[in-house]
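Hi support team,

I've been running sequence recovery on a batch of backbones for a student project. Most finish fine, but this one hangs at about 90% for roughly twenty minutes before it completes. I'm not sure whether the input is malformed or the queue is just slow. I've pasted the structure tokens below so you can try to reproduce it. Let me know if you need the job ID as well.

Thanks,
M.K.
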């Protein structure tokens, strides 16, 4: 029986591992640039933790198990609940603001499709303990700072920004009952993922009045405060809606000050599927609109309290590696050439009697910080040079006759073929 990998998972052979590391290194560098510190948690948690506040969609996608003690557990589909649990545990000891990042491996039992797998890596940045929208702007900035550093311009990606607070105020204003909002958000979140007719049908089932459905559809297409006031003029007197609009305006102002305004757009159709968002919400999409969201996040001011902790405001985002990799490849920012293995030296040895000398040279170079590969077979130089080439070595050191005669090695520059004779001491001095 041939055993195959589970669908929706990936094997990371060395070339794929290089890509994964390249992406993670970029995430990490961007996090550190913006002052975030790294954390991680366990890959499984109590099932109940995800049932409290993440919303039905994530609960349906859980890989869950019962351990031998009868405990119901689940593999983490996101790290935000773990973050909330961890912060609550040490909430009085943690210096504020809490700016944490993580790059967890997550699992969701989704139907695998382009950019969505059952196991993936997700960069998370979160700021806790800051009520002001300045933190929301920082999260969006750090996200865009990474995408920009990866080579993506505003012609490639766009951050669509909205506000759950604003949406809630508008829906309440339209007569939707407060206890219906949480069921409505995941439906509205489907707008871009479903054909227009299917979406409208779903919405009509959830909202009785067809006039309200029409207004909601118009609002979903709004791109400015003026658009909203045009659709529902009397909302001008609604204090919560006005506060939410003012907050959004400030977010855009800060993003402009930080030099990333060209990437940002107000878009009421961004709702987010997860239940815990309470304020600013955003997603980054490819400009062409062919792919699923590159990332998504927002403010979730009630989650820590819902997890039994104190009221602590929080905002953050998660970016998966799958859509990102597709996008980077499509834009030519991730080519196989970028990932050619690079090695400082390959040590070839043409005489079995010199094996120990070759090993000693390799070890000294490694101790000096150079990356060194060596041949496990002495003799045929042609074969060893081929191996040096395959390893991506910049130089090949040949330990042979010249070493025996005068303690010198031949240094061959792999790119040009140029050769020189140097002593071991000179070689080590070069490092
Ligand atoms: P999310 O929208 O569920 O949010 O996921 C965020 C991102 O994770 C998506 O935009 C996508 O890049 C990636 N992602 C999600 N599911 C998959 C999948 N099946 N395969 C590949 N990539 C996927 C959250 O997870 C929130 N916890 C983010 C957050 C952090 N909000 C605040 N802080």
């Amino acid at each position: 029986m041939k055993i195959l990998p589970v669908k929706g998972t990936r094997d990371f052979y060395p070339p794929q591992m290089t890509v994964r590391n390249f992406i993670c290194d970029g995430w990490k560098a961007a996090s550190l640039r913006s002052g975030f510190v790294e954390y991680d948690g366990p890959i499984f948690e109590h099932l109940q933790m995800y049932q409290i506040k993440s919303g039905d969609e994530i609960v349906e996608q859980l890989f869950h198990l019962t351990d031998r003690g009868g405990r119901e557990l689940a593999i983490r589909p996101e790290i935000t609940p773990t973050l909330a649990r961890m912060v609550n545990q040490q909430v009085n000891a943690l210096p504020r603001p809490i700016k944490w990042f993580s790059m967890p491996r997550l699992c969701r039992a989704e139907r695998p499709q382009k950019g969505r797998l059952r196991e993936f890596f997700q960069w998370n940045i979160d700021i806790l303990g800051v009520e002001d929208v300045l933190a929301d702007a920082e999260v969006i900035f750090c996200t865009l700072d990474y995408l920009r550093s990866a080579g993506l311009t505003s012609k490639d990606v766009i951050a669509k920004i909205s506000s759950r607070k604003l949406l809630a105020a508008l829906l309440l204003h339209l007569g939707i009952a407060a206890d219906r909002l949480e069921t409505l958000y995941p439906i509205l979140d489907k707008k871009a993922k479903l054909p227009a007719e299917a979406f409208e049908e779903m919405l009509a089932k959830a909202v009785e009045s067809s006039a309200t459905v029409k207004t909601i559809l118009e609002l979903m297409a709004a791109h400015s405060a003026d658009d909203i006031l045009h659709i529902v003029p009397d909302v001008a007197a609604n204090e919560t809606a006005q506060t939410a609009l003012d907050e959004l305006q400030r977010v855009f102002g800060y993003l402009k000050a930080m030099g990333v305004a060209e990437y940002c757009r107000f878009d009421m159709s961004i709702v987010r599927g997860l239940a815990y968002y309470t304020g600013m919400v955003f997603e980054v999409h490819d400009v062409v609109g062919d792919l699923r969201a590159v990332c998504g996040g927002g403010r979730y001011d009630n989650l820590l309290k819902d997890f039994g902790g104190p009221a602590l405001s929080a905002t953050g985002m998660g970016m998966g590696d799958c859509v990102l990799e597709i996008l980077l490849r499509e834009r030519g920012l991730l080519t196989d050439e970028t990932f050619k293995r690079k090695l400082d030296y390959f040590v070839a040895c043409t005489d079995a009697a010199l094996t120990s000398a070759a090993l000693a040279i390799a070890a000294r170079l490694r101790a000096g910080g150079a990356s060194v590969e060596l041949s496990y077979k002495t003799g045929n130089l042609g074969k060893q040079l081929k191996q040096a080439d395959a390893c991506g070595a910049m130089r090949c050191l040949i330990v042979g006759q010249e070493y025996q005669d005068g303690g010198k090695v031949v240094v061959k520059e792999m790119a040009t073929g140029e050769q020189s004779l140097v002593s071991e001491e000179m070689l080590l001095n070069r490092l």
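--
Follow-up from support: It reproduced on our side and the slowdown came from queue contention, not your input. The longest strand covers residues 119-128. No action needed from you.
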